[in-house]
Design goal:
- It is a single chain.
- It is globular, with a radius of gyration of 23 Å.
- It is an alpha/beta fold.
- The protein folds into two domains: 3-174, Acetylglutamate kinase-like (Carbamate kinase, 3-Layer(aba) Sandwich); 245-408, VC0802-like, CATH 3.30.2130.10.
- 37% of the residues lie in helices and 25% in strands.
């Protein structure tokens, strides 16, 4: 009997009626002869509601207590879904992260999984029950409750699939797969049938908010295929899997974009060794993740340095750099949060030349100015003005042959 792990997000379990539909789907899979483990998120809106409650109590709640609070949302869902399964005559048991043995580090609100013991899941399977597991949560080695950050239930599901050596992890969501870009911005965007782990990692990190990046990392590390599909409509979905030769024939698989970007520029920096280390060391010490970096050629002993950070960290980064600018004798620090990072991604880029030239010429024709550029083996990213997002993404999507009319 094969084993599959199914994950249902908040929109899939957002009401008693939806939970009932999910229960019917799981029961149907069980009747096909497969063992099933289910991972669920909190009901839609619950996590935001709990965050609001915390901030009504105090403007700066402690992260440990936030983890204790937020983990309660998934506990509600696992209990309700287990009740729904039992009412259909499908034996089931609800399990929290602690009960499953999901051991994490101690980085509250953004913990990383270190180990999954999974003995109670195995026992449940042997007893013929569906294990319904709370996503997003675990415990550290001191038994403190931890959470994995936004989208953490995806990571829980794939990590459990790896621990149990499952044949497949199915991520059920409110979209019917991974698209070449956001169809709300580009109506001709199409669903991708198959995509490699490497491409999906880049897409997820560059703004395609379908899967949490760490879940894809687990899938790649343990060779667990991940199927992304809709909860409420039939369809094949998108399979995230190991790269094959057919994937290499496709030059570009997608055009993701990230609007959660801000650019900090420090002007008039003394051009001498150790300055950059001091700047980025101070930013790193505050837990701010820097993405793209560009430094101008020094002139008259001075240079300018720009870097991007998530918008949520922009004010922290600006405060740090303003303090550093005074300390190192730089002119000033400036914040620009009216930017977007537009990228092209594809494993076919490894073996094809001229991709960067085509991207830059396409943006030039649309009169879109490029502020910053970064590349990897399978992606090229450009920072542009936010006002040009739709124009740039649409043009690149068409230029690389991704429109529906060009591929159907």
């Amino acid at each position: 009997m094969g084993l599959v792990v199914h994950k249902y997000g908040g929109s899939s379990v957002g009401s008693p009626e939806k939970i009932g539909l999910v229960a019917e789907k799981i029961h149907a899979v069980r009747k096909e002869g497969k063992d099933v483990v289910v991972v669920v998120s909190a009901m839609e809106g619950d996590t935001d509601r709990l965050i609001r409650l915390a901030h009504e109590i105090t403007p700066e709640p402690k992260e440990r207590e936030m983890d204790m609070l937020l983990s309660s949302g998934e506990r509600v869902t696992i209990a309700l879904l287990t009740m729904a399964l039992e009412s259909l005559g499908c034996p089931a048991v609800s399990l929290t992260g602690r009960q499953v043995g999901i051991i994490t580090d101690s980085a509250h609100t953004r913990a990383r999984i270190k180990e999954i013991q999974a003995d109670r899941i195995r026992d449940s399977i042997q007893e013929g029950k569906v294990a319904v597991v709370a996503g997003f949560q675990g415990i550290d080695e001191s038994s403190n409750v931890t959470t994995l950050g936004r989208g953490g239930s995806d990571t829980t599901a794939v990590a459990i699939a790896a621990a149990l050596d499952a044949e497949l992890c199915v991520i059920h969501t409110d979209v019917d797969g991974v698209y070449t870009t956001d169809p709300n911005l580009v109506p001709k965007a199409r669903r991708i049938d198959r995509i490699s782990f490497d491409e999906m990692l880049e897409m997820a990190s560059l703004g395609a908010n379908v899967l949490q990046t760490r879940s894809v990392e687990f899938g790649k590390k343990y060779s667990i295929p991940i199927l992304v599909k809709s909860t409420f409509q039939d369809g094949p979905g998108t399979l995230v899997t190991t790269e094959d030769e057919a994937m290499e024939q496709v030059l570009v698989s997608g055009v993701p974009f990230d609007t959660n970007q801000a650019k900090v520029t420090i002007t008039g920096i003394p051009d001498k060794p150790g300055v950059a280390a001091k700047i980025f060391g101070s930013i790193s010490d505050r837990g701010v993740v820097v993405d793209m970096i560009i430094q101008n050629v020094g002139e008259s002993g001075l240079t300018d340095l720009s870097f991007t950070v998530p918008k949520t960290d922009a004010q922290v980064a600006l405060k740090i750099t303003k303090e550093l600018a005074k300390e190192i004798g730089a002119k000033e620090a400036i914040l620009d949060d009216r930017i977007v990072k537009v990228s092209i991604v594809g494993v076919g880029m490894r073996s094809h030349g001229g991709v960067a030239a085509k991207m830059f010429s396409t943006l030039a024709r649309e009169e879109v100015n490029i502020m910053m550029i970064s590349t990897s083996e399978i992606k090229i990213s450009c920072v542009i003005e936010a006002k040009n997002t739709e124009k740039a993404v649409g043009a690149l999507h068409e230029a690389f042959g991704l429109n529906q009319s060009e591929t159907n």
